[in-house]
Amino acid sequence: MTIDRLAKEYENQYDILNAKIEGLRPLLYVYTGEDLYLLRRRLKVYYDMESECKRISAMLTHYYDEEEDEQYGLH
């Protein structure tokens, strides 16, 4: 697997997580009590995973860019 393909896989996972978040977000207005608490926890986890996928995808996409190395923490 090449770095570009791996970056694309992370981008695809980002899209999947984003779709899950968008699907669950309307439930924030419906749920109450413990169900709302659990939904917020789940959304927080999805947001964290989504953010990490986006960061890793960008890092892999720019892996060989010399100017971008410091920005993505490669050196």
Short descriptors:
single chain, mainly alpha, 75 residues, elongated, 2 helices
Order of helices and strands: HH
Contiguous uncertain segments of 5+ residues: none
State mean pLDDT (0 to 100 scale): 90
Number of helices: 2
Task: Say how many strands there are.
Answer: 0
Q: Describe the largest sheet.
A: none
Shape: elongated
Q: Helix/strand/pairing class, anyone?
A: mainly alpha
**What would you report as the Rg, rounded to the nearest angstrom?**
16 Å
Instruction: Report helical residue fraction.
Output: 55-70%
- Terminal CA distance reads 23 Å
Describe the fold and architecture:
The chain has helices spanning 3-24, 33-61. Helices cover 68% and strands 0% of the residues. The protein starts with a helix and ends in a 14-residue tail after the last helix. By secondary structure, the chain is mostly helical. Helix 1 runs antiparallel to helix 2. It contains 2 helices and no strands. The protein is elongated and about 50 Å long.
Topology record:
Layout: H1 3-24, H2 33-61
Helix pairs in contact: 1-2
Quick take:
By secondary structure, the chain is an all-alpha fold.
